[in-house]
Amino acid sequence: MTVNEQELHAFIDGELEPERATEIGRLIAGDTALAARVAAFRSDKERLSRIYAGLDKRPLPAEWLRQIETRDRSVKPLSRLYTMRSTLAGIAAALLVALGTWTAFEVQTAGNPDAIIGEAISARADSLKPQEVIEVAAASPSEDQNEVLTSALGMKLKVPDMSKVGYRLAVIRVYSDVPGGKAVELRYRSGGDRVFTLYVRHPNSAARVDLLQRDNLRICIWQDDVVGTVMVGQMSAGEMARAASAAYAGLNL
User: Where are the domains of the chain?
Assistant: First the structure.
């Protein structure tokens, strides 16, 4: 009897049928390597819970605050502050819930809030035709690369340095004629030639954080009032949460 990674996460979160949970429990008890994987997954989940516990108390980046102010000057300042605090609290709660709830995902139509996820997957699969492709040879992101991202999207952003989570920037692709104007895909590669993609454009719906699964891909959508991002990679739940956190935080100048 075998067990896949998705079942291991469901076992950890108490989401399996009792009979299957018992079977996997016996497997874990008799397999030290499998037991070590389960322990690592549990450790990842506990660590992420601690990391994101205070997310609602962190200030938004100054540049993003300025853009929110510009977009909606009809709202009173106190109301704006309350909305931003509420947004961050919602993001933190959504991420923590998502760590224990993995769902199948299918690309939706363009009018659906999940259309940005469909775009990101299409870009990763080379189904979208880029307006510009920039091959990257440098070991770390440069000011010129930051300028490509900033210019394409019309907002000050920084190309995240993903080296701490094992990925190096390989390609920048700029897309036109997507909802909201333009989009940029940052394609990273690991030493083992695994690919992690960060798709960035203006947001298409309310602030949200979701962790999803489609076939063998982990997907994280992390969107606020200013920027919409979708991260896609073949990795474990814990790896995606770490990579998504590093990518989203790294966009801030």
Answer: 5-50, 102-250
| β 208-214/195-201 pair status | unpaired
Q: Which two tokens stand for residue 185?
A: 């895909």
Provide the residue-wise pLDDT of the chain in tens; the chain has 253 residues.
Answer: 677 777 777 788 777 788 888 888 888 888 888 888 888 777 766 665 665 555 545 555 555 555 555 555 544 444 444 444 445 444 544 554 444 444 434 444 445 667 899 899 999 999 888 999 999 876 566 788 899 999 999 888 999 999 888 899 999 999 988 876 899 999 999 987 899 999 999 887 778 888 888 878 889 888 888 889 999 999 887 788 888 888 988 887 5
Residue found by looking up tokens 């139509």 in the block: 109
